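Crash report, auto-generated. Payload:
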Amino acid sequence: MSGVLAVFRGEFRRIFALKPVFATLVLAVAIYAVFYPQPYLNEALRDVPIAVVDADNTLSSREMARRIDATPDIAVALVLPDLPSAEREVQARSIHGILVIPREFERDLLHGRSAPVALYADAGYFLMYQRLSGGVTAVARTFGAEVEATRLVALGVDPALALAAGDPMPLTAVALFNPQGGYATYVLPAALVLILQQTLLIGVGLLGTLPGARVAEASPVATVLGKLLAYLTLETAAVLLYLVVLPFSYGIPRLGPLWAILFVALPFVLAVAGLGLVVAAVFHRPLVVQLVFAAVGLPFFFLAGFAWPTESIPGAVHWIAQLVPSTTAIDALVRVSQLGAPLPLVRDQILVLWGLVAFYGTLAVLLEARRAERPILASP
Amino acid sequence: MTPRRALHPGFWLVFWRELGWLRRRPFLLVLTTASPLGLMALLTAVFSAGLATRLPIAVLDLDGSELSRTVIRTVDATPDVAVSQRVSDLGEGRALILSGRIHGLLLLPANLERDVTAGRRPEVVFFYNTQRLTAGNLALRGVSNAVPNVAAGIRISLRTAQGQPSEVAQPDLTPIPVQTHALFNPTLNYVHFLLAALLPSVLQVVVVTAAAYSVGLDVETPHRLHSLRRLGGGLWPAVAGKTLPYTLLFLMVLGLSDTVLFGVLGMPLRGDRGLLLLAALLFILACQFLGTLLALVLRPMGSAVSIATLLTAPAFGFMGIGFPRIGMSAFAHGWGAILPGTWFLTARIDQTIRGTPPALSARPLLILLAIAVGLAALLALRLESLRAERVLHEATP
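Recovered output after restart:
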């Protein structure tokens, strides 16, 4: 036990004494907390610019264009005479959609005939496409329903029945957990977990490869336990910052209680730290650790089945991805924290994380024992 | 590479020495080829399906009528969703959403058929999880396509049954139907949208960090920088000979991943291949210059690699693919504007899926050129100041 404490004290001191480690585990964690969320802080994409090609040019067609411009999603930036000139503006990226209102639009509408409009929306960027098609469809539906109801009432149909005839079985969509569809609310809870993993992984990898990583008098088990304890102590602060303080300050809803978040975060931090110890033993040199892990963040994020559904990831890839703690932790932490899922519903994920702790912990002890057998070499 | 060349210091001497290094230092070779290719292959495997289909949802059918069964069948038949579970109350559905096993719950109220026939407009409710924006929106798309289809089927019979005049019964459920055309990516394929942008983003991290490392190996001490200069017969040819082998290597890596993207995954290549190659060359050079500059300014090398990572690893969000740049704050917009990847991706989207005429696609290429030239100028300043330091150093013993 005293061996564990000695290793713990030594390792904790090294975190603050070694410049590259301090830069990774403290400075980078602080910088990313402010820097990473910047692109998403406006939450919603507003006023996507489009052009209107109004071949009808009547009261109704202008009213339709005005109502689309009035939605928060879309802004009518240009009114153009024909489709080719509008297409050119799309290619030049001054607009991202074209609404074509054909001739006879008003006449068809007032006669109760179908009066279609055409929307050409830039699907090179899915969020723009979604805003444009959602916004235009919603305006067309309400505007059309109003005109239709007015016409039926004029024909002598009972107003309530006129509405029912238009839409006998309306669909109400209830968005849960992120009702505004905010982008920061969507991406940050998952991304913050990944940043915690990447900084801890590189930090532990550096600690294990920089001079002074070996404690000669401690047993391999005591060495691994002491180090894990040191990382856990430090990461308690990082976890509280990333999973509680940051979501709060960026206005991201959190339904789960603090203790439940910590209960899931505990095996996550230990699994990542254990993986870091294995990484350090495998790669030997601090620079190698830094370089190898620089680019893996992006693939790790998409492996988690968060931005791209797990159901669509090939089974073998998903299975191998379980070896990376973030794959399981992002799913479990987001559900506990943002959705307020009770712990029994993340039992499998917690078990996987503890499994990873056991796996990487044992591997780290074995690698440590092998290293202890060899004579201490002067570090290059 | 040959003794004859070794006698003549210059660009080629450094060029061949660098290739020799790559052969003798497996880590450097892995870092610049196998590692980016492996990560790109992993991402490609993740997105290989291209479209997310048959996302599981649950149904709570409180009516149990012919109509409610028709709704469920129609919803299940859409490509987007699959009815994977029947639940008996809302609590069970909620637990399934929280467990992550379903993306949404469709609620068909009691007396649905009776109320629809009576014209009482009962509501069908779809609860869906938008914490996962992609899956939630896809599930909603499937359900909101299917339910109005069923409604349209019962509408006309409903009107005639109410004894309305036939001209009232004829018109459409949606008086203003919107014919939506998805420009440039008609099937809304994630390979063409997201994967195509992710692959160069991975390469951006690798090129900048690897450049910082490979140059760092040569400039860690003034002595090593001095020998590099002597081998090159001057700092300029030395740096050029040091850079070019990696430019070619990274172009090959990008070419290989693009072969898979265009050849196997069916990404359209509608633009000008020459412009695409020019954009790739400018992008890789700009990234290399950035890494080289960091290695020449920051010591030890670990700091240069750290800063290179800090600049490039979180860059994807700033490049405006998932969340477009027009929606960003001034800071994020400005930061995105100085990243080479932002303009490379813009030029790349122009010359692949959009097929933009060259005249309209000049802007991203010119900005990319300006970034590359700007970084090269900073690099030149730094090299000149290093030379001046060296001269000063030699003059004062």
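Post-recovery validation: Chain B touches chain A through 124 residues (CB under 8 Å).
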